[in-house]
Every structure is written in C-alpha cells, then in structure tokens.
Amino acid sequence: MANERTLSIIKPDAVRRGFTGEIIARFLKEGLRISAMRMMHLSRHQAEGFYAVHRDKSFFPALVEFMTSGPCVVMVLEGENAISRNREIMGATDPARAAANTLRRLYAENIERNAVHGSDAPDTARTEVGYFFSTLELH
Ligand code: CMP
Predict the structure, then answer these.
(1) Is 117 a catalytic residue?
(2) 59 and 112 in contact (C-beta within 8 Å)?
(3) How many CB atoms lie within 10 A of CB 58?
(4) What's the predicted TM-score (pTM) here?
(5) Is 93 in the pocket of ligand 1 (CB under 6 A)?
(6) Looking at residues 14-28, what average pLDDT do you find?
(7) pLDDT grade, residue 1 (50/70/90)?
(8) pLDDT at position 15, please?
(9) Ligand 1 test: best mutation among 10, 50, 58, 59, most atoms within 8 Å of CB?
(10) 117 Cβ closer than 6 Å to some ligand 1 atom
(11) Which residue of 29, 39, 40, 76 has the fewest CB atoms within a 10 Å radius of its CB?
(12) pLDDT digits (tens, 9 = 90+) for 34-46
C-alpha cells in the first residue's frame, strides 16, 4: 500500500448547488486527508492549461466554458492508494454509469457537469497537484 497524493476538484456545478460540504465530508469519512485546499474561479487560460490533454476533443470548448462558469474548490487528497480510492469514491465519468452512492451518482447532472474531478494515475496526479499547488502549500 502506497501513500499517495491526488488532485481533486469540486466543479462549479457542485459548488453552485451547495454540495461542497457534503463532498468534503465524504472524502474525510473515507479516510482521505486534505493536505491543501483553495476555492478559485478559473480563468480561461487556467482551465485550458489544466485540460490541455483534451484540447483536440469535441467537448473541449464546452468543458472550458463550464469550468470557468463559477468558482470551484481544488484540493490535494492524501492517503493509502489515494488516487484509486478517490476514483472509486467519485464513480464513472458519466453519472448515468456511476455506481450507487458514488459522488457523481449522488451529485452530478451529466457527463460534462459531473461534480468532481480526480487525477487518474500517479503521473497525472503529480502534474495536476503541481499545476495548482507548490510544495510549500502541501501540509
Ligand atoms: P474530468 O474527470 O474532469 O476529465 C475530463 C472531463 O471532460 C470529464 O471529467 C468531463 O467532465 C468532461 N467531458 C465532457 N464530455 C465528455 C465526454 N463525452 N467524454 C469524457 N469526458 C467528457
């Protein structure tokens, strides 16, 4: 079992609908630790940079529009196997396919407005954590 860090974002849909507290409580209840957290309204440049791997996808413009539509909460979650644990807690990208009681099943509206983001692998976790937080901000 490896101690890992992963980047989590509570997206603008979930913040707007008042689910921030419930989502944070769920991570803590599941045994993950929050080592950094910030509420921020992403600029277009910041959202495009974060999702650069999806630049050529058809949904990219809509994704950037959505992610800049209001404030989100970016966090670093830490714990044993935090990357896969967070992915289990979130559920499938499409809430219609997400298992019962996962965050996306509970709180997401559709595949685009899907409430939360989580890093999908150790290399992306490292890149994504570094995109938002410096080493000095990780507690
Ligand atoms: P996320 O885990 O943040 O990573 C990429 C995001 O693109 C994804 O969640 C969705 O919010 C968004 N997205 C929008 N449309 C699609 C789609 N058709 N397939 C996959 N991801 C999509």
Answers:
(1) yes
(2) yes
(3) 8
(4) 0.97
(5) yes
(6) 98
(7) confident
(8) 98
(9) 59
(10) yes
(11) 29
(12) 999 999 999 999 9
Output phi, psi for 101, to 5 deg. 70, 5
Candidates 96, 119, 120; CA nearest to 108 is 96
Q: Say if residues 23 and 77 touch (Cβ distance below 8 Å).
A: no
- Residue pointed to by tokens 């670093």: 76
C-alpha triplet 76, 104, 74: angle, nearest 5°? 20
Enter the tokens of residue 102.
């996962």
Instruction: Write b or e for each residue in 1-21: b if 16 or more Cβ atoms lie within 10 A of its Cβ, otherwise e.
Output: eeebbbbbbbbbbbbeeebbe
Q: How far is the CA of 11 from the centre of ligand 1 (A)?
A: 12
Residue 90 has pLDDT above 80, yes or no: yes
Q: Which atom of ligand 1 is nearest to the CA of 90?
A: 2
- Cα-to-chain-centroid distance, residue 33: 15
Ligand 1: residue whose CA is nearest its atom 4: 117
135, two tokens: 């080493």
How many A from CA of 37 to the centre of ligand 1?
A: 22
pLDDT at 62: 98
For 38, phi then psi, to 5°, come to -150, 135
